[in-house]
């Protein structure tokens, strides 16, 4: 075995999930050498790139599809990322403050927001309840030309927006500062993993190969593909869902405005966000199943088929989804949002719920903006899973698939994986230091 190609831990995927694990292991464990493999020439060039996500620190306060229990968990992991950013002086560089709110429109949603505010105010004591008069002062575009009653639960002075791509790059820099045996391999696509004795062999597309004691795969939609090639996770299938956005040509919002989630719909409700890169307000996302594993890159269709692994169980899940009228209509609308010539006129009807005065002439399709997230299908129980999915047979390799809010929860997920790595390798994890720095802040 070539000692130059051997590492204690190998991490596959240079997005925010893989880089956060590299940082946590380097900073808070006694692990020896760590290798991070990224198939492209830059860290965070796919889903963690600022153009590929909503740039939101999901705390659970304005995401109405979160239960109280999930919100409490997400709040804890979101605070880890906030504490990390503030500790390193990244405030107003990579993490930003915006007003934020969950907006209820119509009598039913107004009643829902009032009820949710009462239930969640203990968990989020900084949240306020804003009536239409207060909303008119804060964001006039929300009330202009509106006839329905509205209300919002919101916050004025919280860290709300994150440049996850820049945070991912900082994880690598700070990991190398904490452990000199951290190595980053860009333009190294791992195409196959084999277990040989108690080691793992990682074969690169370029012909190189590496060995490791432990492997963590944080490769988005490709994680399940690599798992299937090893015979792992065959009970799972991946349905890649792509999201698109539209930009407003007017300065209409200075806040993150989320709308109430329809509990029957499996994907995010439309929201408006001041874009931290472009500067304009971005509305979205749409949701569309796509036959590819990356949104704006040419990848093999056969890889998509392998990760989907279509069989009767998968088609039964699809049937259960589309037989519902609301979901079927939702799927049809989101397909039409991608068709030039009609998409602006159709999508503006969605965002009028947020800004009633907007017209189709006020928005434009955001070319090249939007990402793709793997939604995992459990073929045994015949259902679509929401949230993070993990394959861990406790034999030295873990495969992670992290839909939203995977970026927000990156340090929480890294904490769990780092403890698993340390236990397997018989090394110390510095729990006290981790809690002091990232949990308590």
Write up this protein.
The chain is an alpha+beta fold and about 450 residues long. Helices cover about 35% and strands about 25% of the residues. The protein has helices at about 15-30, 70-85, 105-120, 130-140, 140-145, 165-180, 220-230, 300-310, 310-320, 325-335, 345-350, 410-425, 430-440; strands spanning about 5-10, 35, 95, 100-105, 130, 150-155, 160, 180-185, 190-195, 200-205, 210-215, 235-240, 245-250, 255-260, 270-275, 280-285, 290, 365, 370-380, 385, 390, 395-400. The strands form 4 sheets. Strands 1, 2, 8, 9, 10, 11, 21 and 22 form an 8-stranded mixed beta sheet that branches. The protein has an 8-stranded mixed beta sheet with strand order 5-6-4-14-15-16-13-18. Strands 17-12-19-20 form a 4-stranded antiparallel beta sheet. Helix 2 (about 70-85) crosses helix 12. The protein starts with 5 loop residues before the first strand and ends with a helix. About 50% of the residues are buried. The model has no long low-confidence stretch (mean pLDDT about 95).
Oligomer state of the chains in this structure: single chain
Give the strand content.
15-25%
Shape: globular
Number of helices: 13
For the largest beta-sheet, the strand count, sense and barrel status come to:
8 strands, mixed
According to DSSP, the number of beta strands is 22
Structural class: alpha+beta
Q: Give helix % range.
A: 25-40%
* Mean pLDDT score: 93
Taking the alpha carbons of the first and last residues, their distance comes to: 42 Å
Sequence stretches where pLDDT stays below 50 over 5 or more residues: none
The radius of gyration is 22 Å
């Amino acid at each position: 075995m070539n000692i130059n190609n051997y590492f204690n831990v190998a991490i596959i995927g240079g997005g925010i999930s893989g880089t956060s694990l590299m940082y946590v292991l380097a900073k808070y464990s006694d692990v020896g050498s760590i290798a991070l493999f990224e198939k492209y020439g830059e860290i965070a060039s796919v889903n963690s790139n600022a153009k590929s996500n909503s740039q939101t620190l999901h705390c659970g306060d304005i995401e109405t599809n979160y239960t109280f229990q999930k919100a409490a968990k997400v709040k804890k992991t979101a605070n880890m990322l906030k504490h990390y950013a503030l500790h390193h002086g990244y405030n107003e560089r990579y993490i930003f403050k915006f007003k934020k709110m969950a907006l209820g429109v119509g009598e039913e949603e107004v009643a829902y927001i009032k009820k949710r505010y009462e239930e969640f105010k203990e968990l989020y004591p900084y949240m306020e309840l804003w009536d239409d008069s207060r909303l008119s002062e804060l964001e006039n575009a929300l009330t202009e030309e509106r006839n329905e009653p509205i209300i919002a639960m919101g916050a004025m002075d919280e860290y709300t927006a994150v440049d996850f791509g820049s945070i991912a790059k900082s994880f690598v820099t700070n990991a190398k500062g904490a452990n000199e045996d951290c190595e980053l391999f860009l333009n190294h696509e791992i195409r196959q993993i084999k277990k040989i004795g108690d080691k793992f062999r990682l074969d690169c597309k370029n012909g190189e190969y590496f060995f490791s004691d432990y492997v963590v795969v944080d490769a988005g939609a490709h994680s399940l593909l690599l798992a299937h090639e090893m015979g792992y996770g065959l009970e799972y299938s991946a349905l890649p869902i792509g999201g698109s956005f539209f930009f407003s040509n007017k300065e209409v919002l200075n806040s993150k405005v989320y709308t109430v989630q329809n509990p029957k719909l499996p994907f995010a409700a439309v929201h408006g966000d001041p874009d931290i890169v472009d500067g304009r307000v971005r509305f979205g996302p749409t949701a569309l199943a796509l036959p590819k594993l990356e949104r704006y890159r040419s990848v093999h269709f056969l890889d998509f088929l392998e990760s989907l692994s279509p069989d009767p169980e998968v088609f039964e899940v699809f049937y259960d989804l589309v037989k519902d009228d609301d979901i079927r209509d939702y799927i049809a609308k989101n397909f039409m949002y991608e068709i030039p010539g009609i998409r602006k006129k159709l999508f503006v009807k969605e965002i009028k719920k947020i800004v009633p005065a907007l017209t189709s002439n006020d928005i434009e399709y955001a070319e090249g903006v939007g990402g793709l997230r793997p939604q995992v299908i459990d073929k045994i129980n015949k259902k679509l899973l929401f949230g993070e999915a993990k394959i861990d047979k406790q034999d030295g390799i873990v495969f992670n698939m992290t839909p939203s809010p995977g970026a927000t929860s990156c340090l929480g997920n890294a904490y769990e994986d780092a403890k698993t790595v340390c236990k397997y390798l018989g090394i110390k994890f510095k729990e006290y230091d981790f809690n002091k720095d990232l949990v308590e802040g």
